[in-house]
Amino acid sequence: MHEMAIAEGIVDVALDTLKANEGTIIHAIQVQIGALSGVEPEALHFCFDAVTRGTPAERATLEIETIPMKGRCLECHQIFSMEQYRHVCPHCESFAVEELQGRELRVASIDMD
Ligand SMILES: [Zn+2]
Question: 3-69+101-112 adopts what CATH topology?
């Protein structure tokens, strides 16, 4: 379950940011997660609750925004949304497809005091 490591990474970023801003409590953390990152939001929520216990982020809400997958065809240059694990251009059926987004894993914003 790599969600535990991801949750720890998110909380590390949040706590560092809290310290840098001389804050005392984290209310919410917004994260962006690509559809292809392989992260299960439910598992991430579970791990987040576990790793925030006893920290200033203990009562924080984890808000997950899923970033849909998008690709660009290298043959006909069209941009389209891709289905998971299917890298075929829907316009010309080329397999020469470049991923534009869908593997994001980042902290977008942190709500703190
Ligand atoms: Zn194409």
Answer: hypothetical protein PF0899 fold (3.30.2320)
